[in-house]
Amino acid sequence: MSRFLADLPISPPDPLLGIMATFKADPRENKFDLGVGVYRDESGNTPVLAAVKAAERHITDHQASKVYEGPRGNAGFCEAIETLVFGGQAQARAENRVASFVSPGGCGAIFLAMTLAARTSPKGRIWLSDPSWPNHLKIAGAAGRDALGYPYMDPATGTVDFPRMMDALRHAAPGDIVIFQGPCHNPTGIDPTVEQWTYLGDFCARQGLFPLLDVAYHGFAQGLDKDMDGVRAFLDACPETMVAYSCSKNFGLYRERTGCFLVQTTSPRDAEAVASHLADIARAVYSMPPAHGAAIVETILGSEELTALWQSELAGMRERMIVLRGQLADALNVATGTDAFTPLVHQNGMFSMLPLQGPVTDMLRIQSAVYMPASGRINLAGLTSETIEPLAAQLAPYLQAALR
Predict the structure, then answer these.
(1) Closest Cα partner for 318 from 39, 86, 43?
(2) What are the tens digits of pLDDT across the range 100-128?
(3) Which of 127, 176, 227, 249 is catalytic?
(4) Is 214 one of the catalytic residues?
(5) Could you tell me if 334 and 215 lie in one domain?
(6) What is the DSSP string of 205-263?
(7) Which residue of 116, 250, 257, 390 pairs with 104 in a disulfide if CB–CB is 3.0 to 4.6 A?
(8) Among residues 127, 133, 197, 310, which one is catalytic?
(9) In a domain, 31, yes or no
(10) pLDDT tens, position by position, 186-231
(11) Active site residue 249
(12) Would the pTM of this model clear 0.85, i.e. be above it?
């Protein structure tokens, strides 16, 4: 009898998922969860948005079928996401130079991007920021692509280290794929300026690179339009660009796996060709995309009333994180007797990096019930106004040692 699985090794668990499980099992009352990458309110909950609940009621009352929607998925959703990404008056959309498909979350969109790029440039390598969201590397590996890193963060200033970043990217070869994260970079919270975005777009076009913009936290930095200034400047400068868009965070649709993959091309014929390949890839991987989350977003963005409600709720989440950033920066500066953490105030979104890694994070978990990844990345949305000062007190000795 064959035993194909007898020698199959057990894969190690995802480190972040392991932190989540260990945190839940920890019986200590005063514990801090800075790991899981979801938004939480002041009560520690991840609520269903009121706009989402209203949209779901409308869908339940009016949906007439559960039949497949086709490989592209919900066309109304795709067009609504195109508007969020490109704006209402984008030339590329007016000229039918954009292809867009519903995807199973932002991860599905990134996988579509890497698989499409394999057909256009089979030998192209993947370039990722260092540090980057860990799943970027996993998806690149699943797509059979080699991955390289480019420097991103200047720890001393808490800003993009643009000179070192460009020095590395000048070694990228034509046909290579470069992933740039849109607003609210994960894990640093550090974003390029609009001028840097413009330079990057022009650079990719001149260098013959195929860029992918990963937009996972739209609306969490400065607002829906302001957040896209850099992305749109890039799109204006680089006529062939892929975009992965996630609705997990800004619509709170984590478990619905709602994403969109968009490609800006130079001609309607190229957009049609891209769409044909995306349909072929989707058919082989998941056949048809999930529909419920896309229907929720289409319903919200198709209603002035629900759009206004959603924007208000999104603004509330964004403003809460901005307040937490300021409070955490102040508390860490006071606890360490430095001003080293002031740059946190100028960063965006849910994440930032602290100079704590490896064994130190293990010690914090064991001694102080502080749960965070070994990289030092923290999720500010896991904090509350009441927990910030106690957390700063626990972190201070380790941060002081790291700053010496």
Answers:
(1) 39
(2) 999 999 999 999 999 999 999 999 999 99
(3) 249
(4) yes
(5) no
(6) HHHT-EEEEEE--TTSSS-HHHHTHHHHHHHHH-SSEEEEEE-TTTS--GGGTEEEEEE
(7) 257
(8) 133
(9) yes
(10) 999 999 999 999 999 999 999 999 999 999 999 999 999 999 999 9
(11) yes
(12) yes
